[in-house]
Amino acid sequence: xxxxxxxxxxxxxxxxxxxxxxxxxxxxxxxxxxxxxxxxxxxxxxxxxxxxxxxxxxxxxxxxxxxxxxxxxxxxxxxxxxxxxxxxxxxxxxxxxxxxxxxxxxxxxxxxxxxxxxxxxxxxxxxxxxxxxxxxxxxxxxxxxxxxxxxxxxxxxxxxxxxxxxxxxxxxxxxxxxxxxxxxxxxxxxxxxxxxxxxxxxxxxxxxxxxxxxxxxxxxxxxxxxxxxxxxxxxxxxxxxxxxxxxxxxxxxxxxxxxxxxxxxxxxxxxxxxxxxxxxxxxxxxxxxxxxxxxxxxxxxxxxxxxxxxxxxxxxxxxxxxxxxxxxxxxxxxxxxxxxxxxxxxxxxxxxxxxxxxxxxxxxxxxxxxxxxxxxxxxxxxxxxxxxxxxxxxxxxxxxxxxxxxxxxxxxxxxxxxxxxxxxxxxxxxxxxxxxxxxxxxx
Length: 443
Fold this sequence. Notes:
One of its GO terms (cellular component) is cytoplasm. It is an enzyme of class 6 (ligase). Cell wall formation. Catalyzes the addition of glutamate to the nucleotide precursor UDP-N-acetylmuramoyl-L-alanine (UMA). Belongs to the MurCDEF family. The protein has about 450 residues and is α/β, with parallel strands linked by helices. It has three domains: about 1-90, NAD(P)-binding Rossmann-like Domain (Rossmann fold), CATH 3.40.50.720; about 95-300, Mur-like, catalytic domain (UDP-N-acetylmuramoyl-L-alanine:D-glutamate ligase); about 310-440, Mur ligase, C-terminal domain (Protein-Tyrosine Phosphatase, Chain A, Alpha-Beta Complex), CATH 3.90.190. The protein has helices spanning about 10-20, 35-45, 55-60, 75-85, 90-95, 110-125, 140-145, 160, 190-195, 215-225, 270-285, 290-300, 330-335, 360-365, 380-385, 395-405, 430-440, and strands at about 1-5, 25-30, 50, 65, 90, 100-105, 130-135, 150-155, 170-175, 210, 230-235, 245, 250-255, 260-265, 310-315, 320, 345, 365-375, 390-395, 415. The strands form three sheets. A nine-stranded mixed β-sheet has the order 7-8-6-9-10-11-12-13-14, with helices on one face. A six-stranded mixed β-sheet has the order 15-16-20-17-18-19, sandwiched between helices. A five-stranded parallel β-sheet has the order 3-2-1-4-5. Helix 1 packs parallel to helix 7 (about 140-145), helix 6 packs across helix 12 and helix 16 crosses helix 17. The protein is globular, with a radius of gyration of 22 Å.
């Protein structure tokens, strides 16, 4: 059986290692460059590879193809494979049959990384033999090849879910849905929503779907679709006999006739959106039979996720916050919503079809100055030019941070929450966040 892998990144290399272990004839092809450390792994494992090209003769003879999530369906080589009827899968679909572990799959437009990390923290702190993968950390396939975990917590993007056929998590979470990556979905929001709901398409009556009952897109989907999975909703405003909710500053969770309560003030994560993430992750812990005392302790000591509302430093009584992971408007909405001091907001980058109107009331209420950090800032300037007193354009992080310092006074906050992708000026959102933290430390 010939397994061809398109993309020599983390998921590609992990799949190559698992494929080789399972007796496939493996070939890795990357249209760009493959990182040196990944090349070494391929060479040590005697796996054939090519970079900066896709040689059709070596690809179109595949029995099975795993494509990395970053490669769109519309790319010429993928189109040819589909025309020939060669199955094109995601790493998750390829790896899942090779493990008997309990799989917890988490998707959503925002909050999925925090929810994934928190669910993993809850299970690991309870002593479970658990792996963390998917969109973060070491690739799922690689872990299936090298480790013997009894459970996995996987962060799953819509792109990864597009490539599944039979994959089903025992516990699925949809944190929320807001317009994102619409360029990959023919600019049709409903296509993107359907993509997220693929997480539950193969679930049975023995499985669970945990979801945000306050989310409009999710509610709309349920009007015309069903899933066999047992439903566990969570909400900030409604209460349930089966599900999770906040009432009188307490998180209350009721699952399979078992109750769990905890004062929200003892939960380490701050902000309304994080209460949702905490409810989702705690629902997982309850389903996995983790003791209440362990859950309480883990919720109170969780450190949060880097580049997500990360407090960097306080300088001259001004708090600097790195929220570089906010790559869409919805994520930035949560960030601005959790500000309770006058804010200098650093925003901008590659716009994925943003509608900034959603932020208008928060900007009016909280933002004293805007610093645009992007190659093309026209949309941001058009949206907020008349709303804030001060608007500045810069093209590098050092200037952005120095300018922010000039515009603040004691008690203010400087918030990097770009609402955009980072590829115009940075390698990725991590690079953008790290440059921000370094610039703040240099002040």
